[in-house]
Amino acid sequence: MAKLVINPDKKLSKINKEIYGHFSEHLGRCIYEGIYVGEDSPIPNKKGMRTDVVEALKKIKVPVLRWPGGCFADEYHWMDGVGPKEGRKKMINTNWGGVVEDNSFGTHEFFELCEQLGCEAYINGNLGSGTVQEMSEWVEYMTFDGISPMADWRAKNGHEKPWKVKFFGVGNENWGCGGNMNPDYYANEYRRYQTYVRNYNEDEPIYKICCGPNVDDYEWTEGVLKTCFSHCEEKYHGFMDGLSLHYYVHPEGWDIKGSATDFDEKTWYKTLFKALYMEELIVRHGNLMDQYDPDKKLGMIVDEWGTWYTVEPGTNPGFLYQQNTIRDALVAGVTLNIFNKHSDRVKMANLAQIVNVLQAVILTEGADMILTPTYHVFDMYKAHQDAMLLDSFVESHEIGADDEYCVPNLSESVSMDAEGAIHLTLANLSATESYPIESIIFDFKVKEAVGEIVTGEMHDKNTFENPECVKVQKFTDVTVTDEGVNFTIPACSVLHLTIR
Ligand code: AHR
Predict the structure, then answer these.
(1) Which sign does the torsion angle of CA 116, 300, 302, 329 carry?
(2) Which of 67, 173, 320 to mutate to test ligand 1, by most ligand atoms within 8 A of the CB atom?
(3) What is the pLDDT of residues 306-334, one digit of tens each?
(4) d(Cα 491, Cα 409) in Å, to the nearest integer?
(5) What is the pLDDT of residues 214-241, one digit of tens each?
């Protein structure tokens, strides 16, 4: 029996609900078709937003949504996407398939979506190809409550009251698609652009996010922090609140990537091995951040993460449409456990991307919609949102198909919610073995334990023909003991226990 130890008296950090955030880009069928179908569509919608998708997303309590990109953000000119739709400019989506972007989904539509979802807005500004004035005026348009050219224009376009922009990204991947800058150049640009991201509402200051590294580019982190911190020193709150990190799991590397559905046991472990690398990235970038910010006020914002496979056969390569299996459920489970465990530094994370792109939680085909295995993990893990991380430990050992890609057999994180219930999420990374678990919860008399699980054969997935192959199932085989709870976790599983 593997021992799992929980200490409810040791509350380590708050798990910000934004760790369960999402990302929506003008890419493939994410926004158009996936979310926005327009008011005249035969697909049921409210103000153009698909009702089925919005209802499903409300169920997993999407706390925050990032928009409009990604690479798209640094080529997006927001003024093209406001005002009467017939007058909106059509442009080429150069990053994603060269398709026509008709700008029918713009700022007003995005805030309408956030309102329907009940989530916070995370806007990503254009530093790569936009001007300081353009960025500054966007912020004025969205948030200024008074008489000004931009506030007046917003009112003329149908929204008199300002919106709340909780998070604002000053550029995206400016080391790559956002302008191919070096760290020093970007950091100086950041200093300039962010100056004009004004806080018009003192009570709700905008949380400003600086473009951080790609994967293990520690030089970028170091360079950006050096240039920005030498300027802001103690007063960085309001100057720079977060630093982003992007990391994707490509089982066979960036060039080949690998199939989403056709993989062997070795690739199963290789994928999970690569997913677990997130922890090293957080620790090492976090160590650099500690040198400048030992009190951990600066948030690490993992605003793009997830699996990135070869696109589904027969689909547009620029649309990044991929299927989602139990393997993705495991990637989500272990990654979210890592974020929870590092919630003293990780303040937000945004899965890429919300619908029809990369590790999506929802796939659509015309009027039909399916929920992916990843969706069901987010559904179970929503219990951690804004809960307190508890000190915990699970005994594990290494497993794998060969010596190269060994992973621990188990991954856990535990939190306590505002009502005092304990939430344990545990992933079994083994493709074949189940494991009995004996838990010990210090100074806690268990009255009841309610379980739910996402499990199956490693290739299991939902399709439009069989949409409920993978779903959240009740998990009842739990024994309450004097010390905690005992149970056996099956192979290829992500489990959630609520313990009271
Ligand atoms: O999520 C897809 C793309 O991946 C984003 O547009 C970009 O920021 C990253 O390279």
Answers:
(1) negative
(2) 173
(3) 999 999 999 999 999 999 999 999 999 99
(4) 10
(5) 999 999 999 999 998 866 655 555 789 9
Q: What is the mean pLDDT of residues 248-273?
A: 96
Cis ω before 162 (30° cut-off from 0): no
Q: Which of 112, 120, 304, 452 is flagged as catalytic?
A: 304
Measured by CA distance, the residue closest to atom 7 of ligand 1 is 70
Supply the residue whose CA is at minimum distance from atom 9 of ligand 1. 70
pLDDT of 187 over the 80 cut: yes
CA distance 475 to 238: 46
Say whether 196 sits in a helix, a strand or coil.
coil
Residue 365 catalytic?
Answer: no
| Cα 322 to Cα 303: distance, rounded to the nearest angstrom | 20
How many angstroms does the Cα of residue 443 sit away from the middle of ligand 1?
46
Which residues contact residue 466 at a Cβ distance below 8 angstroms, ignoring those fewer than 6 apart?
Answer: none
- Are the beta carbons of 78 and 5 closer than 8 angstroms? no
The answer to whether 304 is a known catalytic residue is: yes
Ligand 1 centre to CA of 264 (Å) is: 27
Residue 347 has pLDDT above 70, yes or no: yes
* Cα(479) to centroid(ligand 1), Å: 45
Residue 212, preceding peptide bond in cis (omega within 30° of 0): no
